[in-house]
Amino acid sequence: MRVLNKRVLIEPDEQNYQHKNQDVNKALKEGKLILPEIAEGGLKKGAFSGKIVEVAKDCGSGVKSGDKVFFAQFAFTKIVLKDREYWLMDERDLYAV
């Protein structure tokens, strides 16, 4: 697969995810309503991080494969290749390398 149009392919860090049952028992004891997507876990809020796997040839920022990068929560499109999750995003949405 080749990445095109000033995009980068990122392998997300594990720390971007909330783990299952985090604070769910405490919320149940307090009588709070638990939404299914929260109980099952999901993405955390705030800035995300990951490792660049592939960079489009027309990217001009100097990022390269292997760089650790930080970016916004909704800046990416999730892609699954060979049972692994990757995030595809515009180069301009990277916060820091």
Quick structural summary:
This protein has 97 residues and is mainly β. The protein is built from two helices and eight strands.
What's the SSE blueprint?
Blueprint: E1 7-12, E2 17-18, H1 24-29, H2 36-40, E3 42-43, E4 48-55, E5 68-71, E6 76-81, E7 84-90, E8 94-96
Antiparallel strand pairs: 1-4, 1-7, 2-3, 4-5, 5-8, 6-7
Would you tell me the structural class of the helices and strands? mainly beta
The fraction of residues in strands falls at: 35-45%
| Helix share, percent | 10-25%
Strand order of the largest sheet: 6-7-1-4-5-8
State the major sheet. Answer: 6 strands, antiparallel
- Count of helical regions: 2
Mean pLDDT: 78
List low-pLDDT spans.
none
Please tell me about this protein's structure:
With 97 residues, the protein is mainly beta. 11% of the residues lie in helices and 39% in strands. It has two helices and eight strands, in the order E-E-H-H-E-E-E-E-E-E. A hairpin with a 2-residue loop joins strand 6 and strand 7. The model has no long low-confidence stretch (mean pLDDT 78).
Please give a handful of descriptors for the protein shown.
97 residues; mainly beta; six-stranded antiparallel beta sheet; two-stranded antiparallel sheet; 2 helices; elongated
